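Do me a favour: review this protein, sequence plus structure tokens, and tell me how the chain folds. Record follows.
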Amino acid sequence: MAELHTLTITQAHEKLKKKEITSEELVRACIKRIESVDKNFNAVVHRNFERALIEAKKVDTKNVFNHPLTGIPYLTKDVYCEEGVPTTACSNMLQNDPTSSASGGLHGASYVPPFDSTTTKRLKNVGAISLGKTNTDEFTMGASTETSCYGVTKNPWDTTRVAGGSSGGSAAAVAADECMFALGTDTGGSIRQPASFCGCAGMRVTYGRTSRFGVMSMASTLDTIGALTKSTEDYAVVLGAIAGRDPLDGTTGDQPVPDYRAGLQKSIKGLRIGLPKEYFIEGIHPEVEKAVRDAAEVLKKLGALIVDVSLPYTKYAVATYYVLCPCEVSSNMARYDGIRYGHTVKSADNLVDYYHQVRSEGFGPEVKRRIMIGTYALSAGYFDAYYRQAQKVRTLIKQDFDAAFQKVDLLLSPVSPHTAFTIGANSADPVAMYLEDVFTVAQVMAGIPAMSVLCGFAKSVTPSTVEGLPIGLQIMGPQWGEEMILRAAHAYEGATEWQRRKPAL
């Protein structure tokens, strides 16, 4: 039982079906793991253990494990609404901290949703069991999980370094075997970058592939819903359960959901895979570049054809993203005014002063920064110069990818130009933090899927550790191309042994 927390979804499902273990044992193993090691990482910010054990006993009573997620424990990023479970977006705006002067939440209490997000509801319907909430950058704004009101999440491979962001809590929890999988969100790389930093599998799906209903929005035309898992096969299982049309989210597509897991068995022989030259830039860590190019050679030996391609508008992606994203942030954050939602104050002199105090105390520096940038870019005098121009460049970036996918089936690149950076390294420099997204925002503009899988370790970065720090390989595909991405990622995993390594905790 002590080793049950190390199982993948697929392994745990087989044991449950064969009656070798129970769901309660699996849940208890993950709870014990969280209680034992999470103090070192700060990945889990709300624990829902009693309810999880109740649900596990119900699953065991039914004793039917037809779905691979039935009885499987997972963690949820703290922006997904779960009925009856505190959901705070790791912000003082929504959480009540008795040690703080801020009253937090609606009427001084942490926000507790009266409903489930579509994603958590779908998981609940197949019998998956939520253990609690994971840490995130405040309202998902950040690239390191350092802006959370609960403090930074540390990387299990090296606790002096960040786990990435904004889904850093979910990535650290999966890497540390605190759950079988964890939910995340990806706006500008918030699943892929922490997956890369922590050595997990994580994908940004096609915009509209999964429902955003019940997930707190940062940027509505950019946000996507996904997961972080221990393997590509596990990711295929989770995506199959949560993907598909949702009448509660008008942005979801009508495309049928394929059997992603069955698709993993198809050969990649003959696949054309492009290496975009714009993703191998000056300043990239040499071990990162070598690991990605070595991965391309592995895929070539498996029968894929590797070709060089160009995406010339990539160089404008970060600038475009950091105009469009703050504009949508300024709109979405308007609801947190202390009247409809959010932190409240009692000492205001008038309504304007009330708004000022609520938002000054409730929001952290990064949220305030993006609200101000977005409000400025949307103002009457600057709308055409910034927002409208950014939308035009967004179209050009999408056309870049459309043209590339006429020549190739998939694209390969690093997820990040380097491995996990030291905690606090970019805290005083917002521009440096924004540049962390240099390889992960162009796909956002195009609405295409992209996945991070472990492809090696950079030993020179942390010579004191045995393995070094994880390096992520980014596999990009055309819209609705998740099945092909998963097939290539699974083939790569099968030909290498990186995924078998674990951090020494």
Q: What stands out?
A: The mean pLDDT is 94.
